[in-house]
Each structure stands twice: as C-alpha cells, then as structure tokens.
Design a protein that fits this description.
The protein is α+β, with helices and mostly antiparallel strands. 32% of the residues lie in helices and 18% in strands. It has six helices and eight strands. Strands 1-8 form a two-stranded antiparallel ribbon. The longest helix is centred in the last third of the chain and has 17 residues. It is globular and about 55 Å long. The N and C termini lie far apart (64 Å).
Length: 174
C-alpha cells in the first residue's frame, strides 16, 4: 500500500476502540455452536473438547453459561509464563500464546484464576482464546446473541440498565 494508506491504517489501529466478548448466559440455549466454530477455526475439527470457549451446564437448573478467557488487564497467565510465550496483541487486546515459544509447562494454567487456559495433549502446548484476530468465530456462530463482540467499554451496560430498572421498580413499589 501507499505511504498515505499505511499512515491512515496506523492511525486507525491506534485509535480503534477496543472490543471484547460479552456473554449473556440468559440467552444461551446450550447449542454448542460457539464451541464447534471455535474448534473448527483453531483445530480444523468440529470437536468441543478442543474449543477455547466452553459451555458450563447446570443440569439441575437447565441453564447454560458460556465462558472463555476474559483477556484481563492483569494477565496473570502472561506474567507467569517463564519463556514469554504469551504476548499482548495491541490491536485486539488479546493475550496470544505463541506455539513456537510455548514449552508446555502449564504454569499459565495455574496462574489463571478463571481456568480458561487449557493444555492440548495433542500438541503439548497450551491453548486459550485469542479473539480470532478480532473476528471471534464463537460470536459469529451464536444464533441467540448470547455471545457478542462489542465495545469493551460497554460490555456491562445492558446489565447495569436492567439492574437500574429493577431498582427503580423496587423503589416505586416501596
């Protein structure tokens, strides 16, 4: 590309809004489309066991909760890695595992307080969500919008609004 286009791309990359996955368990039906899309995109196999997103099932309640790496700012996984195999993708905010550097020690799996980094026995490396380079397949595949990819500053907006409406309703009836 020309110099002008490269400059514009650089400016856009530096000012682009950070996005993150937003998960609404109330919308999840447990269809596993997110797990299948993730495993296919990353492993070329429709195998939920190799997915970077998981659906936790509460059988007694008939509820499903998707969960994956939150790409937390503190990034304990990244700081714990003794070989610096996990780095920050500044464009997406994702913490990326570099297979060529990962030695499979699993220290990052211990450091993650959420349990969202897993060991892949087939490769001897760890796997975690990398936000599919800014185009998360799980969000694209979700038929109910239980998983969406939104402005990171607003991932909790709808929950806050719902809470505020409940609070207002509670005060009005009191």
């Amino acid at each position: 590309p020309s110099l002008g286009i490269r400059v514009i791309q650089k400016i856009w990359e530096e000012t682009a809004m950070q996005k993150s996955l937003s998960i609404d368990p109330d919308k999840c039906t447990g269809c596993l489309q997110c797990e299948l899309a993730c495993s296919y995109d990353n492993e070329n196999a429709f195998n939920p066991a190799k997915s970077r997103i998981k659906i936790f099932t509460f059988h007694d309640k008939g509820r499903f909760v998707p969960y994956t790496c939150t790409q937390c700012d503190e990034a304990w996984c990244m700081h714990a890695c003794p070989v610096d195999a996990i780095t920050l993708d500044k464009g997406t905010g994702a913490k990326i595992v570099h297979d060529n550097l990962c030695v499979g020690c699993k220290v990052c799996t211990i450091a993650c307080p959420f349990g969202t980094i897993n060991y892949n026995a087939d490769t001897g490396k760890v796997i975690k969500c990398d936000l599919c380079e800014g185009e998360p397949e799980c969000a694209k595949a979700c038929p109910t919008d239980a998983i969406t990819y939104v402005d990171a500053n607003w991932t909790g907006l709808e929950k806050m609004r719902a809470w505020a409406e409940k609070t207002d309703a509670g005060q009005a009836s009191a």
